[in-house]
Amino acid sequence: MDRNRKYLAIAFASLLAAVVIVTVAGLLLARKPPLTLQGQVEATEIRISGKLLGRIDSFRVKEGDEVRAGDTLVVINSPIVQAQYRKTEALHRATEEENRKIDRGTRSQIVASAYQVWLAAKSQAELAEKTHARVHKLYTDSVVARQRYDEAEAAMQSARAAERSAYEQYRLALEGVQREDREASRNMVAAAASSVDEVAALLVDAKLTAPADGQIAGIYPKRGELVAPGAPIMNLVVLDDSYVVFNVREDLMPHFRIGKHFAVAVPALARDDITLEVYYISPLGSFATWKSTKQAGSYDMRTFEVRLRPTIAVEGLRPGMTAILEWEASPNPLP
């Protein structure tokens, strides 16, 4: 009798254990698997380019170098602009001398000087026209940008105007110095000074410097190659401005709001506790539609680009690294 009771107790316990095991297994199987989003670390990239048409003289950095704002990155050699600078300086000095002579009164030397200024302005106009013709050919061949063509056009018009002004000044010198003559001479000096400043502003770009702290990610031309105005020479990655990008389905967007925090894992850093804050949300184009549900009488789910920025600086975080965001079926993001 005791033996039968013992067998019954064992059988009941076994049955109860089996029921518990089946129940737990059913609950585990019924649970939805964790939702996983995979994103990528990106960073602000700055394309380094200049306004000069010239050849690469030397690189002061190489790919992978860390640079500080203001560091010289590349030196461009532009003999044409350097020659223009010397000519505009010479014209400026000539106009200053002419102005001083006019202030002292009309003399034969003043007439001769005005004639020489006119000849110099005429040569400058001819040079500007030739330069404009060369740049126009390069522009039609898609070698230089529209900006360079516009600059050449403006320089030619300016040179023509300077020539006309110099010629009128020469005629006034022949007729004698009047108040208007003195004013015209002063205006010539101002115009020549402006031309010098204009060319000097272009020469500033002969040495391109880093606009921010970062790392050189790519250098495109080789030393000695010709670079056009506005053409990218190298990329500067601002590592301090790194962020993570996720492409999120529309039905998951209720969990993403500006200012919300999430904990993500970055396998490359062997960390799963990096806290990010949502700061940018934007819908992607129609090509990024996640899936069509119109057959069920519903709608097409769009995809949104969500950007998150680390709340504190993360050492070693670099563009290209994978970021993983996991949660249960009912996500519970950090506050």
Describe what this molecule looks like in 3D:
The chain has 335 residues and is of the alpha+beta class. It has three domains: 104 residues, Beta Barrel (Elongation Factor Tu (Ef-tu), domain 3), CATH 2.40.30; 59 residues, OB fold (Dihydrolipoamide Acetyltransferase, E2P), CATH 2.40.50; 126 residues, Four Helix Bundle (Hemerythrin (Met), subunit A) (Up-down Bundle), CATH 1.20.120. 43% of the residues lie in helices and 27% in strands. It contains five helices and 14 strands. The strands form three sheets. Strands 1, 3, 6, 8, 9, 10, 13 and 14 form an eight-stranded antiparallel beta sheet that branches. A four-stranded antiparallel beta sheet has the order 5-4-2-7, with no helix packed on it. Strand 11 and strand 12 form a beta hairpin.
Could you provide a short overview of the structure?
This protein is about 45% helix and about 25% strand.
Question: What brief labels describe this structure?
Answer:
single chain; 335 residues; alpha+beta; Elongation Factor Tu (Ef-tu), domain 3; eight-stranded antiparallel sheet; four-stranded antiparallel sheet; 5 helices; 43% helix; rod-shaped
Write the layout of secondary structure elements.
Blueprint: H1 2-30, E1 35-48, E2 54-59, E3 66-67, E4 72-77, H2 79-104, H3 108-140, H4 146-175, H5 179-204, E5 207-209, E6 214-219, E7 226-227, E8 234-249, E9 261-266, E10 271-283, E11 291-292, E12 300-301, E13 303-310, E14 322-327
Antiparallel strand pairs: 1-8, 1-14, 2-4, 2-7, 3-6, 4-5, 6-8, 8-13, 9-10, 10-13, 11-12
